[in-house]
Amino acid sequence: MPVQREAAEMGHGRWLLVLCLPLATALAQTTTPMPAAAPAQETFAAATTPDAVIDMPAVAVSGVQPGPGMWRVSKGDHHLWILGTVSPLPNRLQWKSEQVEAVLAQADQVLGSPGITVDTDLGFFGKLMLAPSAFKAGRNPGDVTLQEILPADLYARWSRLKAQYIGRDRGIEKKRPIVAASELYFDAIKQSGLGDKPVIRPVFKRAMKKRKLDYTPATLELRIADPKAAIAEFRGESLDDVECMRKTLDLVEHDIPAMVERANAWAVGDIEALQRSPAVGTQAVCVAAFSQSRAARKRGLTDVEARVKAMWLEVAEQALQQSDTTVATLPVSELLATDGYLAAFRARGYEITEP
Predict the structure, then answer these.
(1) pTM assigned to the model
(2) Which InterPro entries match (predicted)?
């Protein structure tokens, strides 16, 4: 099973990606700073002023919602239909997926999302035996604590947000900043009404099973010949992931309302709102903390983002040449970026039809 961008489903054979990809996926969100809170006196005055408008926290939508339309990439009579995705989505969303189901009903194949497959020389039981070692790799070398690693101001912010979203968990204090930040992030979005409940995948699985559609993986395969040695090396290595922690705290403190609005825009099918959403996030910082480590560089786990994109585009072009109708999903932020997937298709001469 590949490690997908929108929902990284980690198995024992993907031990080396446990520390960065789920976080990188989840944090590919906007980082627009929110206005500072008004003083209590000003807030009370506004509330007692006739016809005053009071800013309330963003609330995740619920119930049956249509979701966005689909982009179409075409050359002649060959079409690639792409559903733009956002993560996380509202926890109580029920997706009304008739449009996507109609396209799937005529599709020749489904193209897998961009991602990574990590292979090793170990069999299933060998991978299973690695699980305890992989878990320990998520802790700081020497079992030092976050308080010993983080600058004082950053640790103070971490402690406050940890108390608010995680509670009393002493074990997390010995985890690497990138891992602790990931746990904080997921707890924070859960409390905001967002989550990682599968919404899109079940619709695709039903259609593929019903029509016995071909599934074409489009992942970059990375092979690790020495998983035991790599884990041992990684466990003893420090990561430059303090900046990842800082960016994550910025997001939790300021950007969750923007994330809720972005999730709501996807749910109600507001393409213009999705297009206006900034694509800047913490992904690059957090992935770099891992990919620039000695253990990762030694094993070729570098330039992963560019290699994943190149692989996906190569497979997508082959699908366009071979099939009349192909269906795929891509994160909206990467789909619409100035150097994103749609831009790459335009540069190669394909016609793009927007929803």
Answers:
(1) 0.76
(2) TraB/PrgY/GumN_fam
